[in-house]
Amino acid sequence: MKKLLVVLSVLPIFIGCKRVEKKQEITQVVEEETPKKEVPFVWEGANIYFLLTDRFNNGNPNNDVNFNRTEETAVLRGFEGGDIQGITQKIEEGYFTDLGINAIWFTPVVEQIHGATDEGTGKTYGYHGYWAKDWTAIDPNFGTKKDLEKLVKTAHSKGIRILLDVVLNHTGPVTEKDPVWPDDWVRTGPKCEFSTYENTTACTLVDNLPDILTESNEPVELPDALLAKWKEEGRLSKELDELQLFFDRTGYPRAPRYYIIKWLTDYINDLGVDGFRVDTVKHVNENAWSDLHKEANYAFDMWKKKHQDKILDDNPFYMVGEVYNYGISGGREFDFGDKKVDFFDYGFKSLINFELKHDAGSPYETIFKKYNKLLNTKLKGKSVLNYLTSHDDGAPYDKDRTKPYRAANVLLLTPGASQVYYGDETSRDLTIEGTVGDATLRSFMNWEELDSLPETQKIHKHWQKLGSFRANHPAIGAGKHKRLSKSPYVFSRTYVNGDFRDKVVVGLELPKGKKSLRVKGFFGDGTKLYDTYSETEVTVTNGKVVLDNDFDIALLELVE
């Protein structure tokens, strides 16, 4: 927007030795930025990046070896050096912002078992973060509490939310260095069979993975090994005093789950993290999740009261659950075989959707119409987190990375929240020679390929354009879908919340060269639109817009 600016200047002139001031008007034409519309953050349409802390970026090579973890492991089953500082570096560089990421979930960073174990997959350390030894400490291989505090602050400064990955279901395996927890804390059998509610919850996931007695209300004492560890670290009194305050405030019995809930919610109270991705949800009595949600909300409210200048928005604390094999078609319920449970009633705003990878080969409209209907009927007011690849799904969509553009289109344009698994945007190899099981999904991030390979850079650019469009338009993930044209395929999304209204049009599988996109009934004639993919401004004429380029996709937004 142009604006006239009149400047009154005073010029000194000299007549003889006498100084006289002469007033002079200067008119300037100044380009004034049109204020950009504030885009609200909406969890239902979030674009979440999921990474393995140890496999993403090594920000501090000095912390690569701790607790004498030097035994040789099976392929990709030891620590590789990625850490909290490495994530923060990439936030600071704008990597996530450029990708349109507005929330980051990384694998747990609490202190892991010190020893290695071999459960049929080769010698393995707890590099993945799911084998807790001490929930109150950060594992030095990942960094420090200060590192985590800096990560959260840095992310928030960029408008990015942080999801901590939390485990309540189990401890780490037992090794020579890691004794089993007392038997009033854990069960060490039977192994889960997954055919009934009982043999899915009151059991161990695998051999040698002690299962927390999360259903118990019986008070227990802290394990001697943990007390001795805290004493050696000089924080025994502090930890005991904090526990006393917690149990005095809540009135909970000192049962196993309440200790862990206290330790997990401390990270909210201390750092202001925005949400939890909750591991192994269906293996825990669902009432435990209500308890976790209640205390997480309390901690989030307390943090906001203490840090009113750092609050990002008024979104409540967010919990998304991993109910393994839950699919969106199931609506709100998960079927254990002999019992159905609605986990959305126990604190979860969203569940990870294991169904999109099966839907991804269907026509776009089939996918989008299905998800739009379910999210606006059975799941109204809730959401799902869609993914195509992950850290423990051995049968992902496009495992050989032959369809990276379609994968981006499906994941980032399907209604619901999206989970970009690290390396989806760079076609990181998921078939690593010599690996056993899910290790093949967990190679180190392929930064070198992104720096050097033109095709990788082209794929990355596509993910950036789509991700940024999604982040700028809540209508994509949280809005209502409507097909505008079958051929070429054009659809609209609309999101309305209070005074905020967001409208976009997307075209897919478009012909090369000149193409006409129908927008009649959605955008009126004379409306100026901007195709963010080709960076072209167009005007609606006779209910259509015309583009002339070699792209098979168009991302149309209103010109403000």
TrEMBL record:
Coiled coil: none
GO molecular function annotations of the record: hydrolase activity
Domain (Glycosyl hydrolase family 13 catalytic) ranges: 50-470
Keywords noted in UniProt: Carbohydrate metabolism, Glycosidase, Hydrolase
Keyword flag Hydrolase: yes
PROSITE patterns reported in the protein's UniProt record: PROKAR_LIPOPROTEIN
Family, similarity comment: Belongs to the glycosyl hydrolase 13 family.
Name under which the protein is recorded: Alpha-amylase
